[in-house]
Amino acid sequence: AQSVSQHNHHVILSEAASLELGCNYSYGGTVNLFWYVQYPGQHLQLLLKYFSGDPLVKGIKGFEAEFIKSKFSFNLRKPSVQWSDTAEYFCAVKDTDKLIFGTGTRLQVFP
Amino acid sequence: NAGVTQTPKFQVLKTGQSMTLQCAQDMNHNSMYWYRQDPGMGLRLIYYSASEGTTDKGEVPNGYNVSRLNKREFSLRLESAAPSQTSVYFCASIWVAGDQPQHFGDGTRLSIL
Fold first, then answer.
1. Are B74 and B7 in contact (CB under 8 A)?
2. How do residues B67-99 score in pLDDT, each as one tens digit?
3. Which residues of chain A have a CB within 8 Å of the CB of B49?
């Protein structure tokens, strides 16, 4: 079965800093990959998804992610974070008819 | 606001009590899911229902039962609650599993004393 690893458990940044959150999945072939965000006290919302095609995926709120098949990775990036990006971020991979989530990365952005 | 509705939002139980968490979606989705979220462990799948009339175990099914009552509703039951089941529970749904993003409810925060 698929598994997902998020190695950054807690990231602290100042506003305007660049962000990169790591995500690795366990095995190859055709993969569907997702990044979700959970703001404090809220449910998960989709940031972006990759099914096929261009490996650089643009999402909402200025986020993007790059699918690198050779590295089994799908890292999330943002050039300049804002205080409002403070949230928990989850990477997920499709496994047959369900999603497998990583353990999440908590991002804190200070003004 | 259309989407996935979970009830209740908060609940406190005593060890050994039972309760049912309700989930309903109005998007005509086929597949529905129950997750629990615990600090440092992400979301773990408890049970899912790929279509009306079917249910399957996820990663952490022990201590839970589910019922897919109809296409709209998917309930999660704790028969004899244990402190280890203290968690935030999320229901999610999707039209065609895997090809679309899941839509999540607002969660149920459950504490078991």
1. no
2. 998 999 999 999 999 999 999 999 999 876 555
3. none
How many angstroms separate the CA atoms of B97 and B100, rounded? 7
Record: contact B41-A44, CB cut-off 8 A: no
Q: Which of B110, B100, B112 is nearest to B37 (CA)?
A: B110
Report how far apart, in Å, the C-alpha atoms of B55 and of each of A9, A86, B60, B65 are: 32, 36, 14, 10
Quote the CA–CA distance of A9 and A30 in Å, as a whole number.
Answer: 27
- Identify the pLDDT of residue B86: 97
CB contacts, 8 Å: A44 with chain B: 43, 90, 92, 102, 104
Q: CA of A92: which chain B residue's CA is closest?
A: B43
